[in-house]
Specification:
The complex is a heterodimer. By secondary structure, chain A is mainly α. Chain A contains 23 helices and no strands. In chain A, helix 4 runs antiparallel to helix 16, helix 4 packs parallel to helix 18 and helix 7 packs across helix 8. Chain B has 2 domains: about 90 residues; about 60 residues, no CATH class. The radius of gyration of chain B is 24 Å and the shape is flat.
Chain lengths: ~500, ~170
């Protein structure tokens, strides 16, 4: 209770609330711009939070996160372009609804569904994270190592179209994490005499290079599209805020089901909003009495998709707070920001820094409220944002990336690294590697290594990894997740083969 | 990837070959790094030394790369290799803007220590905008304003508000 009050007083200061408001606005704007993902927005926010108190910094980043999930809705509903991958399913029904002359209703539905989705997921987070942490504290290094192996395999198999390239990307991430001093004894490794590499590859620089630079580069792939300006849906927009709120609340089953789907998927490592919105949409369609109206502007579709993707925000924090394992790239960035402030993330977080954890819970709730207020008051303005052309975004955001990488350590050599990693990231992206496993590999690598070596220092017997029941459970789960992914992959390949044969004959 | 006038199937094959090359590169690099990790001396205080975890990672990487190579070789028809060079050039042409942007970024990063953050950023933003944008008087004015705000303005913001001093340059 004391921690709760301490967290509360830290969040409810004027400075923090103002920063959080700015974060919400920035998140909404960023996600409304096609090609600018939530992840990129958070990566670029991180350097700005270095000078803040830890909780203040985290609160701002959570605001960007929550705002970002809503912002994707704007371009999805009005332009039919998902502003972020998390709002793909939103375009199915919100865009037709906007086309039918109800753009305001479509936006309002999405905003309210996002709000309730976030609130429900926060409640689940508050209930689920502390017991999970209590359980996790009892885990030894053996269990931790196996858990990380499991987390990485599930990430690699869930993300992207190729299991093999997903695994390769995850392993490359682990390999990147081994550059620099080793985490136990500080012995230098793989620096090849290059000064730049002696301190290891800074996580933030890798993150910005991999996600932001390569994303920006891939935005200008299509020449003709870049050089033309895109048109916007125009027309009178009437939000009908309160009427729509009632309309959303009149669908409690859909709302709660979609939010729970979002929370569960968010809590699973590797699966985030980009999967949750599709699954929630699919579930809503199956449960509906009138499935044919989906895709033609059914309000249930909008509610399901937006509640689903917003609920992953709280879901993703469950493994982060409970186990110290980030569930997605965004959670990895949140974890990095805590580490920058010298706070070690793990199951002991909730005991050692209870005020921080409760502060995060409160910040989630406050952020969703701020998001609601900002969206309702200024949705009209954000419509303009969705039309900012790419030729303006790409160079400006590149400069922001450079500033962000520099501000961490004030080292010019970090910028050279950024350049290399950006190019490498683009090459990997162009070759069809998924980059999320790579980033998780980078952040989980040192944790895996520390636990592996600690385990064997405690007891030299390597069979303990398979004889301790919980450790064995995680390892079996890892094998199953790979097997399951390969099976799905083969199935899909057979299907593709059959359809191409049919087309040829 | 919706331009007309190129063979999608051949482009896909070229993509597979490019991936195959990347697998081979990963295999070579991981074997080399595995050997260099094996050379890291172990301390007598622990069973696994500083080189052990990297060895596991690189062994895994090499193994996956072999699997990927076998998988890729199965998929690529024999004739595709001859067409690879042509397809690569065609791909690079379609993506020329990407290369221009990345090259500009590289030049910009190298110029920062010399010119200082503000001037280098101004020139970089304006140059990339000029390459990418549909040129008209209105967009030109917006471009110059954006370049000024995000070079000199950003420098001011970081110096005054966050007390982070971006490189000044030697000029």
């Amino acid at each position: 209770m004391e921690d709760f009050l301490s967290g509360l007083t830290q969040i409810f200061t004027l400075a923090t609330l103002v920063y959080m408001l700015a974060g919400s606005i920035a998140g909404i704007i960023a996600a409304a711009i096609p090609g600018f993902t939530v992840t990129m927005a958070i990566v670029l926010t991180l350097p700005l939070t270095f000078t803040m108190e830890p909780l203040q910094g985290i609160a701002v980043m959570l605001s960007v996160y929550v705002g970002g999930y809503t912002g994707g809705l704007i371009s999805a509903a009005l332009l039919g372009i998902p502003g972020t991958p998390s709002s793909v399913a939103t375009t199915f029904d919100a865009f037709p609804m906007a086309r039918k002359g109800e753009p305001g209703r479509a936006l309002s539905l999405g905003v309210w569904a996002s709000f309730f989705g976030t609130v429900i997921s926060t409640v689940v987070l508050i209930v689920a994270a502390p017991p999970l942490a209590l359980f996790a504290v009892k885990l030894g290094p053996w269990e931790y190592f196996s858990l990380i192996v499991f987390a990485l395999t599930i990430v690699a198999s869930l993300v992207g179209d190729s299991v093999i390239r997903g695994m390769l990307a995850g392993l490359i991430g682990l390999a990147i994490s081994t550059v620099g001093p080793d985490p136990m004894m500080g012995r230098p490794r793989f620096d090849f005499g290059i000064e730049m590499l002696q301190a290891g590859l800074p996580f933030l620089v890798v993150l910005i290079g991999i996600f932001a630079i390569s994303q920006l580069a891939s935005e200008v792939e299509n020449k003709s599209e870049v050089r033309s300006g895109n048109a916007l849906v125009t027309g009178a927009i009437d939000f009908q805020t309160w009427k729509v709120m009632k309309e959303v609340l009149m669908r409690p089953v859909n709302l709660i089901r979609s939010s729970i789907v979002g929370v569960l998927i968010g809590a699973l490592p590797g699966a985030g909003g980009s999967i949750a919105n599709l699954v929630a949409y699919d579930q809503a369609k199956r449960a509906s009495k009138d499935p044919d109206s989906f895709g033609k502007g059914n309000p249930d579709g909008v509610v399901a998709s937006e509640a689903g993707n917003s609920a992953t925000a709280g879901g993703g924090l469950i493994p982060l707070i409970g186990l110290g394992i980030p569930g997605s790239a965004v959670d990895a960035i949140l974890m990095a920001s805590l580490m920058v402030h010298g706070i070690s993330v793990g199951p002991r977080l909730i005991m050692d820094h209870g005020d921080l954890v409760y502060g995060m819970f409160i910040a989630m709730a406050v952020a969703s409220l701020l998001m609601l207020i900002v969206s309702v008051l200024s949705m009209r303005l954000f419509l303009r944002v969705a039309t900012v052309p790419k030729w303006l975004i790409v160079p400006v955001v590149m400069v922001c990336c450079v500033v962000g990488s520099f501000a961490l350590n004030n080292r010019v050599t970090d910028l050279y690294l950024l350049g290399f990693i950006g190019v490498a990231g683009y090459v990997l992206r162009a070759l069809g590697y998924s980059l999320a496993p790579l980033v998780l590999g980078v952040i989980l690598g040192p944790i895996a290594e520390t636990n592996l070596r600690r385990a064997l220092m405690t007891d030299g017997d390597p069979t303990l990894f398979v004889t301790r029941p919980i450790s064995l459970l995680f390892l079996v789960a890892a094998v199953l997740s790979i097997a399951w992914a390969i099976r799905g992959h083969l199935k899909q390949r057979n299907k593709a083969k059959r359809s191409s044969d049919a087309a040829a004959s | 990837m919706s331009e007309n006038g190129f063979n999608k199937e051949q482009a896909r094959e070229a993509g597979e070959i490019a991936r195959l090359l990347s697998y081979v590169l990963i295999l070579i690099a991981s074997v080399a790094l595995f050997l260099s990790a094996a050379a890291i001396p172990t301390s007598r205080f622990e069973r696994l030394g500083a080189g052990a975890f990297p060895k596991i990672v690189f062994a895994g990487l090499a193994l996956m790369a072999v699997v990927a190579i076998v998988d890729a070789l199965r998929k690529i028809p024999a004739g595709a290799y001859g067409r690879f060079a042509v397809q690569t050039v065609a791909w690079a042409k379609r993506r020329s803007l990407v290369f221009i942007c990345l090259a500009a970024l590289a030049l910009y990063i190298m110029a920062i220590p010399v010119l200082g953050f503000s001037i280098a950023s101004f020139v970089f933003i304006l140059a990339v905008e000029l390459v990418l944008m549909p040129r008209s008087p209105k967009t030109l004015i917006i471009a110059v304003i954006a370049a000024a705000v995000f070079s000199f303005g950003l420098n001011w913001l970081f110096a005054e508000v966050f007390t982070v001093f971006l490189p000044r340059g030697v000029l």
